[in-house]
Amino acid sequence: MADKVLVMLSGGLDSATCLYWAKKRFSDVFAITFNYYGRLVQEKRSTAKLARSAGTTELITIDLPFVKEASDFYNGQLKKHDPQALWSSYVPARNLMFYSIAAHYAEYLDAKWIVGGHNSHDIKFFRDASSRFIEKLNALFKEGCLLCNGRTYKIVLPLAKKNRTEIVMLARKLKVPIAHTWSCHREGETHCGTCYACRQRLDAFRSLGLVDPVFTRS
């Protein structure tokens, strides 16, 4: 397809899968990433590697130092029962902000699609990752776009109905360089293997009888 597409790229397995999904379908692929407060160095590195490996037209990097996860905003004193650390990674209005910025660039680039990597696990906790929330955003974008020439850009969620195991299967099918991805919520040279994101990855690969390459790389 000739249309331009803008992919939300974080460096994780989900967004990497979306990037390669878009690469297979569109000839002109842009990516956008957000450097919020305390973003992990390895996540930034993975994002850059993935953008290069996919041959993206451009990686747009946005610095948002005022955007903090709840754990950073409350200096580690978040008073929520949080066995999976989901509350710790919560950011109020995260997707409202991120998709609005992406829409700003999409309109100037004349990109007709904005690709997000939310999956079936995300919507169980993060309300702004649901298809219903995204549909409302798309309706607002349609009302506000003045440079769209009758065809507004639209957010699409290729993984919305997929679980972690299905995403791993799709990533392998699309030949995503999985070893370049970073999902861990802790800083370090390798994935910790114990945070909820690492455990989800490990469980998914094990269910398929596979070894996650991020846990074998040196």
Report on the architecture of this protein:
The protein is α/β, with parallel strands linked by helices and 218 residues long. It has one domain (4-177): 3-Layer(aba) Sandwich (Rossmann fold). It is 38% helix and 13% strand. The chain is built from 7 helices and 5 strands. The protein has a 5-stranded parallel β-sheet with strand order 3-2-1-4-5, sandwiched between helices. Strand 2 (28-36), helix 2 and strand 3 (58-64) form a beta-alpha-beta unit. The mean pLDDT is 92.
Reconstruct the topology from this structure.
Layout (H helix, E strand, L loop, with lengths): L3 E5 L4 H13 L2 E9 L4 H14 L3 E7 L5 H4 L20 H16 L1 E5 L15 H14 L9 E3 L7 H10 L22 H12 L11
Parallel strand pairs: 1-2, 1-4, 2-3, 4-5
Question: What is this entry, summarized?
Answer:
This protein is an alpha/beta fold. It has 7 helices and 5 strands.
